[in-house]
Amino acid sequence: MSTGNFLLNHALRELRLPVFLNEYEAAARQAGHENWNHPQYLEHLAQAEVQARQAKRIQRLLKQAAFPGPKELSDFNFAAVPSLNKSKVLELARTEFAERRENVILLGPPGVGKTHLAIAVGRECCRQGKKVRFHTAAGLVNLCTEAKDERRLLKLEAQVRKSDIVILDELGYLPFDRRGAEHLFQFFSNCYEQVSLVITTNLPFSEWPAVFADDERLTGALLDRLTHKSHILEIDEKEESYRFRMKLKAMESIDRKEVKSANKSS
Ligand code: ADP
Ligand code: MG
User: How far apart are CA 163 and CA 135, in angstroms?
Assistant: First the structure.
């Protein structure tokens, strides 16, 4: 913390420039050693302030997104899911889809990395300054039901529209009753062309009516809106669960160790 100039310190606090305040004395010494001119000195401090502010904003966006875990694309083993269009995933991570308010549907059986990919793309979007919110489909329906009971559904809807991207995870795992289906339908209408949706589901579109209270007409209208501007990424039915495969691998290596130690002791 600088003790140098009382009036300057006061002004920098008023202007909420903490990095400027903390660093201006050290930067002045550096400027002396490296012969910076006045604009260079100011630029150094201003850049440091901007960078700190951006980093803080990204941290805030990542926190507000409420991701269930810190999954990243760098941890994703694309070789394990050859049916997945890798270049499409990398394109999505550049986040232009969100600027165009397009939707993403990740379709495939359980355990193949749909949630991992949705979170990883979501985190990239946060890093590019986008406002993201993660919900499970069941969690979102509960939120809507509660908000409706407490007469604040409009407020919740306005809140949803402030996001750039909403991730809706696990659509299709649990069927909804009539009321739940209507809430989801309302949610999709609310987001239409306002918010990008990233949806993970295990259900092919033909089976969606079963989730939406068996209402073919409502589901048809919903799919129409959802798929109007969307990227559909399908992971093949034949892919085995990644978690399952990892477990098998771990078990095989335990077996091998056991065989080795049994051989040693005999
Ligand atoms: P899904 O949502 O399709 O059911 P998840 O994304 O929850 O699957 O994946 C299950 C677990 O396996 C998670 O811990 C996830 O990080 C991991 N996983 C799945 N596929 C991969 C992959 N290709 N590379 C790395 N980890 C993976
Ligand atoms: Mg999942």
Answer: 12
Total count of residues recorded for the chain: 266
Residue closest to 103 by CA, chosen among 214, 209, 208, 187: 187
C-alpha 187/C-alpha 189 separation (Å) is: 5
- The conformation of residue 205, written as its DSSP 8-state character, comes to G
Ligand 1 neighbours (beta carbon < 6 A): 71, 75-77, 80-81, 108, 110-116, 200, 242-243
Residue 212 has phi, psi (to 5 degrees) of -100, 60
Q: In which band, very low, low, confident or very high, does the pLDDT at 236 lie, cut at 50, 70 and 90?
A: confident
For CATH 3.40.50.300, list the domain ranges present in the chain. Answer: 73-239
Phi, psi of 231 (to 5 degrees): -110, 120
Strands 196-201 vs 132-136: parallel, antiparallel or unpaired = unpaired
- Shortest-distance atom of ligand 1 to CA 169: 2
* Homologous superfamily (CATH) for 73-239: P-loop containing nucleotide triphosphate hydrolases (3.40.50.300)
Q: Which of 242, 245, 246 to mutate to test the pocket of ligand 1 (most atoms within 8 A of CB)?
A: 242
Residue 258 CA from chain centroid, whole number: 41
- 69-85 residue pLDDT tens: 999 999 999 999 999 99
**pLDDT tens digits, one per residue of 27-59:** 999 999 999 999 999 999 999 999 999 999 999
Secondary structure letter of residue 212 according to DSSP: B
Residue nearest to atom 25 of ligand 1 (CA): 76
